[in-house]
Design brief:
alpha+beta; Rossmann fold; Methylamine Dehydrogenase, Chain H; 5-stranded antiparallel sheet; 40 strands
Length: 869
């Protein structure tokens, strides 16, 4: 059956809302009420078996007896959607929804003329006649039609129309957007630098969400040298990592760019003249999201990672030569798959440091004068434990702490003696000699990060993990704790830093004697704290004086942190395991079981659920909600063993942990099943899908986002072979097949069961977890929902694996906030207008500093003007 045209379909669907919204939202028992959804045909009902799935790859590999997912057949068999697993036959009635439109960005950019010439040839149009094999060179070999739409795309558009109509009928839908706008639409400082000749480089996000770079020369003349609003109207072309990289004297600014939000979109590097904003060299291509880093050697040369056959190399570009032959500084044989960062050490930038992972963390140091490489990790330990690790193993061979380029002493964190990590000291001249200077923690789960502060006998500032959150401690040179500086419960800490005025930061000399003598402000350690209720805040502490010398917000988002609090709790899972969770809410919240609550989780791929301040969480809190993040097994919050306890045949532990978290929130009075929503994305989307199908009565609202929802086909859709280590495949064994099917969301929807109100969220251009997972799951839920609670699909048009642009994020936050509240029976939301000003958030001390800085600028400007006369 062909889909009806959208206009006709919407005329039919418009009658689906005869029941008043609030009456519908408040029902909590199964009913026979049904919404009218777009017609979804059954795959086996007609003989139109599709041949090719996403990316032009054969979409059916079922029956393969191994985990090798290549298919060398020129014409793979038609896909009937009926698969045999050992002794069981499974009929996939919505298999046709896997025939999604091509995601590949090169295909999407083809014009009609390109396709007629068939120069790219990303789609097989016709069979090639006998005795000819190259259909790219002979126009007569094919008849090309302009791609317009497809059955799947028409179906998705119809689903989106139904979803949007329902959302737009929520009485306070627009008010929630206004509240989000008032929270997010503030100018935000990203980075700024000052240079003698150039003046100030100031990168910021404007109130419209576009990033810009503004220069202010010593005379006060301002120029916008970079403006993302001029690159694309929707913000999909812009800086990939939200940062800028100025050269040594500020003459040039390097930017890592992305063209779109999907994984397969291109990344490239631009280098701009910091005075004019003009490109000074050809853009550097073949940049990968697995290596977004730049390190300037001087004012014209910089190092950057690129890819060669999927593996990274580090090249050097000299912008004064504009050459395509960038020197290979570090070849692929020295590097792991992912480059985390690169930087230079030494007074003359002699040493190149590369932090990378494979997936376990490690770093190399290269002497640029001699060309010698120094492998810091213990090779025997690597060969024994990590020679061929699973793709998402959590571990660290060597994590950089400090390097002294004069003595060649190097300090690093390693788990070679203890999985919790130790700080080890060695020397580049004898890396086999290793001294443990800070032993593995007994009160914490892991050493995450540390910096060395070279004052007196020396100090360490160490960031520890504890039950998924962070603790920051100042210790002496042997790791004995002196002061716990952790600001509050339930937060994360990063960006540890040390400044010694006589040395400068990272060993750089400081020539200004006023800075050297300014002990109060120029000898300190610092760190950055943030949480669900606290935007990034910088703390500066002088360990010699045992004095906190400054605390200030880094991010001036107009959120009233003082009105909220977070609490760390431990709860008991099904098998008795103690699982940590952080709960955030407004102070004074009454635990009466009626609080709208979101339970969020991930639980896989050794991912760590952070507690960053995010606008979606802040929006939920401002609208009276509670936000709970559970640190489930499958993640690495408590180390690699915690990860292993939630993968493959032990995956059910993750879902048990999540259910137990919900039970805790209900039993402690935070919420009840009528007010509990569950959310998660990617592997977290699988978590939500499994939770809502295994225990549907426990949750009122479910929002699986970009989820892996068909566990019998996860390895058959695009480039997901690296998921096999985490999930296993249904071909591995009968036991693995039965385990996957037992929790696969798509295969556990039962007719007549009342499932939570649901929006299955994805993007048409998600090339990490293909949207067919969401399409099929939504279709199955709509068909079998046993009560009047709605089940919708929302597929964003141009997003990748989640919202990318500023407006995409706002759309997402508006949808999830309004839908959750509406389905819980909330009848009104506040109008949030009285937000703190930027000056109020800065505080008196910071405003005084800025006034002095401006006064000094005016004096210097006057001197320059007098010298010009």
């Amino acid at each position: 059956m062909k889909l009806k045209k959208l206009a006709v379909l919407m005329a039919v669907v418009s009658g689906a809302y005869a029941v008043p919204n609030m009456a519908f939202a408040q029902e909590s028992q199964a009913t026979t009420q049904k919404l009218v959804y777009p017609t979804t045909r059954i795959h086996q009902e007609q003989q139109d078996h599709f041949m090719f799935g996403e990316y032009g790859r054969p979409s059916n590999y079922v029956g393969s007896s191994s985990t090798s997912f290549s298919d060398t057949s020129d014409f793979p068999r038609p896909d009937d959607g009926i698969d045999q697993y050992f002794t069981e036959t499974v009929v996939d009635k919505y298999r046709w929804l896997e025939d999604i439109d091509p995601i590949n960005p090169e295909y999407a950019k083809e014009t009609s003329a390109d396709r007629e010439r068939n120069l790219i040839g990303t789609r097989l149009e016709n069979e090639v006649p006998d005795d000819q094999f190259d259909n790219r060179t002979t126009k007569a070999l094919q008849t090309v039609a302009e791609p317009t739409s497809s059955e799947v795309n028409d179906w998705v558009n119809a689903q989106n129309a139904v979803t949007n109509e329902y959302l737009n009928n929520i009485p306070y839908y627009d008010q929630i957007r206004k509240n989000i706008d008032s929270l997010m639409d503030r100018e935000h400082l990203i980075r700024r630098y000052k240079f003698d000749n150039i003046g100030e480089l100031y990168m910021y996000r404007g109130t419209d969400g576009f990033n810009r770079i503004r220069t202010t020369d010593p005379l006060g003349n301002q120029t916008i040298i970079y403006d993302e609003s001029l690159l694309s109207s929707d913000g999909r072309v812009g800086v990939a990592d939200g940062d800028m990289y100025p050269s040594e004297n500020g003459t040039y600014v390097a930017l890592i760019m992305r063209d779109g939000n999907a994984d397969s979109n291109k990344y490239f590097i631009r280098v701009l003249d910091s005075k004019t904003g003009q490109d000074v060299t050809t853009p550097i291509q073949n940049i990968s999201y697995s290596g977004l880093a730049i390190a300037w050697l001087d004012d014209t040369r910089f190092y950057f990672p690129t890819t060669n056959g999927g593996w990274p190399e580090v090249h050097m570009r000299d912008v004064s030569k504009n050459s395509f032959n960038d020197k290979i500084e570090v070849s692929r044989k020295h590097l792991a798959q992912w480059i985390e960062d690169i930087w230079l050490e030494g007074d003359d930038n002699r040493y190149l440091v590369i932090q990378h992972s494979s997936p376990v963390e490690n770093f190399y140091i290269k002497d640029l004068h001699t060309g010698k490489y120094y492998r810091i990790h213990n090779q025997k330990f690597f060969d024994k434990k990590y020679h061929n690790p699973d793709a998402f193993t959590h571990g660290f061979l060597a994590r950089y702490v400090h390097f002294d380029p004069k003595t060649l002493d190097v300090w690093f964190i390693s788990e070679e003696n203890n999985p919790k990590g130790e700080i080890i000291k060695s020397n580049l001249n004898n890396l086999k000699k290793r001294e443990v200077v800070v032993t593995a923690p007994t009160d914490y789960d892991e050493i995450l990060e540390a910096v060395w502060h070279n004052r007196g006998d020396g100090y360490f500032l160490i960031n520890y993990s504890k039950n998924g959150t962070h603790r920051v401690v100042v210790t002496d040179s042997r790791g004995n704790p002196l002061r716990d500086l952790t600001p509050a419960e339930g937060g994360n800490i990063d960006d540890l830093y040390s400044l010694v005025a006589s040395e400068g930061s990272h060993g750089q000399p400081v020539d200004d004697p006023l800075i050297v003598n300014d002990e109060n402000n120029q000898n300190y350690v610092s760190f950055r704290f943030y949480s669900t209720t606290t935007p990034r805040t910088i703390y500066k502490y002088n360990p010699v004086r045992d004095q906190m010398i400054d605390v200030r917000r880094r991010d001036l988002h107009p959120f009233v942190t003082e009105d909220y609090e977070s609490k760390e709790v431990m709860y008991t899972s099904k098998d008795g395991t103690q699982v940590p969770m952080v709960i955030s809410y407004k102070k004074g919240t009454v635990l009466d079981g009626k609080n709208p609550t979101v339970l969020y989780g991930y639980g896989g791929f050794s991912g760590i659920s952070d507690h960053a301040f995010r606008f979606d969480r802040a929006t939920w809190l401002e609208h009276g909600g509670i936000w709970a993040t559970a640190h489930l097994r499958g993640g690495a919050e408590l180390g690699e063993e915690w990860h292993k306890a939630g993968k493959r045949l032990d995956k059910m532990n993750v879902f048990d942990d999540f259910e137990a978290a919900a039970d805790y929130l209900i039993n402690q009075g935070y919420t009840s099943p009528d007010y509990l929503a569950i959310s998660g994305a990617s592997n977290g989307g699988l978590l939500v899908g499994a939770a809502m199908t295994l225990n549907p009565s426990k949750y009122r609202v479910a929002l699986p986002e970009v989820g892996v929802l068909d566990m019998l086909r996860h390895q058959d859709n695009y480039h997901t072979g690296y998921w096999v280590d985490e999930y296993g495949t249904p071909y591995d064994s009968i036991e693995m097949y039965e385990k996957l099917k037992s929790y696969s969301p798509y295969h556990n929807v039962k007719a007549g069961t009342c499932y939570p109100s649901t929006i299955v969220m994805t993007s048409k251009r998600d090339d990490r977890v293909t949207p067919s997972h969401s399409y099929k799951f939504a279709a199955e839920l709509q068909d079998k929902q046993g009560c009047g609670r709605p089940v919708f699909l929302y597929a964003a048009e141009k997003q990748g694996h989640g919202p990318g642009t500023w407006e995409d994020r706002k759309d997402n936050y508006q949808i999830v906030t309004a839908f959750r509240l509406h389905e819980m029976g909330i009848t009104s939301v506040p109008t949030i207008t009285n937000r703190p000003s930027e000056d109020e958030l800065k505080g008196a001390k910071r405003l005084e500093e800025e006034a002095k800085e401006h006064e000094e600028f005016l004096k210097n400007r006057q001197k320059l003007l007098e010298n010009q006369q």
